[in-house]
Amino acid sequence: MLRWGDMGGQWGVNRSVAQIHALLFLSDRPLTAEDIADKLGMARSNVSNSLRELLAWKLAWRVPVLGDRRDHYEAETDLWQMATKVAQGRKEREIDPMVAAIRAAMAHADDPRISPAVRQRLHSMHDFMNTVEGWYQQMLNVPPAQIMTLIRMGSKVVGLLKFVSGKGGKKEIE
């Protein structure tokens, strides 16, 4: 759990949020906020705020426990669902505003006060972001097993691209 928290911190996620997520992920039963605070030695307010964030990311949710009126929490345990939810959340918070800003800038790209070099860079950014956004949308429809196969292929994919392009990968493949 400490390492998960450290990793979360490296990725821009609050350490407490990541540690609570790890605890819920590894727990074989739903936990209350009090359970979490006790097990991790955290302040109850910190746990509450962190749980709110995990709920917002849809990485954890409340579950009823018969005979107990307190809120209990459990985490998403499907690793692909976790990765998809994190990617979606990051896209919404980081990529989408960038795409909107670039599109807004492109509306003024023909302004004669903008130098040709800056105009070209705006067009390049626009094309890049549209390509990344399109790729992301395509990846949502690829079954996890196929993505794992692609990941396991690793550098073999690069070799295949070089072979297909016939120029050591320098020609753009469509």
TrEMBL record:
InterPro entries: ArsR-like_HTH, HTH-GbsR_regulator, HTH_MarR-typ, MJ1563, WH-like_DNA-bd_sf, WH_DNA-bd_sf. The keyword Calcium does not apply. One of its GO terms (molecular function) is DNA-binding transcription factor activity. Keywords: DNA-binding, Transcription, Transcription regulation. It comes from the Bacteria. Residues 12-70 form the HTH marR-type domain. Belongs to the GbsR family. This is HTH-type transcriptional regulator. It comes from Sphingobium indicum (strain DSM 16413 / CCM 7287 / MTCC 6362 / UT26 / NBRC 101211 / UT26S) (Sphingobium japonicum).
